[in-house]
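Quick start: read one record
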Amino acid sequence: MKRKPPPSPFEAQRKAAQRAALNALRRARRSAEKAGVSLSEWEGKFIESVSERVKTHGRAFGDPELGAPGQALSAMQGRKLKEITAKARGEEPKRRWGKKDRS
């Protein structure tokens, strides 16, 4: 009986990043539904398309320069996911760097 070779550490790290990204996407959607916050049409499509790409391809971006190797989401996708999660929690959106409040 032949033994299966142990998975490489890189492969294990990539699978862990994939699971973490899928869990974060599910958590964002669930917390928005639970809080009664309606996500915009764009945000709903974003969560659906990113989760579908992570499930089928293992990551949600095609260009390797957009994200770190072994990561499932690019830097901008991670940032948008954090913004959606903050909106679902009812937190005030953070000011972008360099923009002043002109009230």
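The helical segments are 9-35, 41-57, 75-89.
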